[in-house]
């Protein structure tokens, strides 16, 4: 990835630090919670799509689970055994419209992500906080909540990293200033993480 995107050479160590946190989370059956605004909200959904099903590998379920499915119903169990794919548990905090609109109307618009982190998060989980500026208020509140719960925080940001870096256990800071350019380099970063995780957990 860094050969194709040499601007990220300066972030190689941070990329690997972040990956180590993600691997440790999934190794202990933890969850990845992901938050971002605007284009970064789309990135959050994109990452979930790569982790919750096969990305570049066929992720067959275990024989034991296949037997259990078929024991419940032989016909449907056989189809489930063929089609279900191995997963790494990831939740985007951007797409729960009823919850988030109710909370922003009834409580505080800036604390919507924090409320979901409080509800879904546990010690050992990871929050992936995406903010091109590093100063998005709702992201910062989510990070404070995550740290208080004993979660790790991985930041994916740009510019100088903003306030977000101070709450992150690992931070990848794209060395660019324009939002769209930062977002263009966020994609290969999280694709690399997803590929590395898939190889680690489903590479055989």
Oligomerization state: single chain
Shape: globular
H/I helix tally: 9
The main sheet comes to: 5 strands, parallel
Mean pLDDT: 97
Extract low-pLDDT stretches.
Answer: none
Percentage of helical residues?
40-55%
Number of separate strands? 5
Strand order of the largest sheet: 2-1-3-4-5
Description:
- The structure is a single chain.
- It is globular and about 55 Å long.
- It has helices spanning 12-27, 39-51, 63-72, 74-83, 97-106, 112-120, 137-148, 164-167, 179-202; strands at 32-35, 90-92, 126-131, 152-158, 170-174.
- It is of the alpha/beta class.
- Strand 3, helix 7 (137-148) and strand 4 (152-158) form a beta-alpha-beta unit.
- A 5-stranded parallel sheet has the order 2-1-3-4-5, sandwiched between helices.
- Helices cover 53% and strands 12% of the residues.
- Helix 1 (12-27) packs across helix 9 (179-202), helix 3 runs antiparallel to helix 4 and helix 6 packs parallel to helix 7 (137-148).
- The model has no long low-confidence stretch (mean pLDDT 97).
- The protein starts with 11 loop residues before the first helix and ends with a helix.
- The longest helix has 24 residues, at 179-202.
- It has 9 helices and 5 strands.
Helix and strand topology:
Blueprint: H1 12-27, E1 32-35, H2 39-51, H3 63-72, H4 74-83, E2 90-92, H5 97-106, H6 112-120, E3 126-131, H7 137-148, E4 152-158, H8 164-167, E5 170-174, H9 179-202
Parallel strand pairs: 1-2, 1-3, 3-4, 4-5
Helix pairs in contact: 1-9, 2-9, 3-4, 6-7
